[in-house]
Amino acid sequence: MQEDILINWSPQETRVAVVENGSLQELHVERTLERGLVGNVYLGKVVRVLPGMQSAFIDIGLERAAFLHVADVWHRQPDGEPPGIARNTQPQIPIERQVFEGQALTVQVIKDPIGTKGARLSTQISIAGRFLVFLPQDDHIGVSQKIPSSQRDELRARLQQLAGSEGGGFILRTNGEDASDAELSDDLSYLRKAWARIKDASVRLPPLSILHQDLSLLQRVLRDLAGESTQSIKVDSREQFEALQSFGMEFMPAAAAKLQLYKGERPIFDLYSIDDDIAKALGRRVELKSGGYLIVDQTEALTTVDVNTGGFVGARNFDDTIFRTNLEAAQTIARQLRLRNLGGIIIVDFIDMGREDHRESVLAEFRKQLARDRVKTMAGGFSQLGLVEMTRKRTRESLAHMLCEPCAACEGKGIVKTARSVAYDIFREILREARQFDPKEFRVVASPKVIELFLDEESQHLAGLSEFIGKPVSLQSEGAMGQDQYDIVLL
């Protein structure tokens, strides 16, 4: 299936849309102010060594000096052991014997600055690629622990053969489990070129210079998103187009050849109504062409997808209606998972089907659509309750978490108390306050809808409460308050 990649760039935000046959499949967003420093490599300068804390402060040109602990100072491991093994088995060399004030040191950020704390650093450099992580200071060839142990030896041997004898260590990432030799070779080439540039910059540039910046979303488009099925990569900024072309020609010439500068008068995302699809992807309900719909609910523990028929079309063809609705839902759910970037445990409740062949066909279609996802997924069969359980690897924040925040009125619950429930809560609170305090008057400050209820349907009960406690109760409408928010002021 052919795909196009659209890049909408502004100084504040970069948005990337992956479109297949005119339909939005994936959305990636990166905001300038929210981009972290993790992965960046600097030529730092040691400003202070603290033997008592076994740490040092390194100036890397930021507002606050960064922090280097002795455990994060790299040294060659014996017998080609993977990084970190020797640290646990041999005594550490004191930091004052490894670094000194005024020393220029190549360091990498492993934790962003938080509050008053500076960034945390390591002298062990690692460069992440699409499928591999390059460890230029080590010779270890490793495989992600998340890949089944039965496959690790074979993958390690394959990677060892591809890496050759040029030096440096590599770790195969989880998403590289099914990568071809050509894809792994491209990644190897990119990573070695990136390290060569870092070494060259460390000699040419003065201390406090940045030697390597972790790839921006624009650059990751060429590395991670562009593939054989990509027809074009359209960019709506000439400056970014030229910068991306320069980067691509050096590291990923095949992907760079697909770059195009978009010069149209309409905004690039209007070509395929991308903003409309984004708005729909933030809602709970997803309409199906057959008349059915999905309800998508994302919780802390898992995501649930409920499939519904919508309009009833008659008992004679009811089985076929359910079957067609579930088939369409299988395709739409796979697309929504990619678009919303939902990860973790996902439970799908298809409409109950009486025929076994219908269930098998729906499950086969669902797995076929999931196989197109660049993120690793795994789907089981129908459970005894008719549910399909699946997992999708978490790669980044979901679209909703990235673009939205919990509602201030309902605090993320998605519901608020009715005006009548709030009114009765206020009655109880006034009684509670009247037993403890002796004010001249109680004033209720609440939303307009609650106040309107007190003045109309609940006016008799309010008058009875005032008579019972022997104090007047006045009302004040506050439009800025949510429906279930209120204050009781003692006057």
What is the mean pLDDT? 88
Estimate what percentage of residues fall within beta strands. 25-35%
Helix content: 25-40%
What's the total helix number?
13
> Quick one: biggest sheet?
6 strands, mixed
Please give the radius of gyration in angstroms: 30 Å
Shape: globular
Number of strands: 24
Task: Give the second-level CATH assignment, the architecture of the largest domain.
Answer: Beta Barrel
Instruction: Output the CATH class name of the largest domain.
Output: Mainly Beta
CATH homologous superfamily grouping of the largest domain: Nucleic acid-binding proteins
Q: Ends: how far apart?
A: 71 Å
Please name the CATH topology of the largest domain: OB fold (Dihydrolipoamide Acetyltransferase, E2P)
**Major beta sheet, strand line-up:** 16-17-18-19-21-20
**Unreliable sequence segments:** 83-89
Structural class: alpha+beta
Number of domains: 4
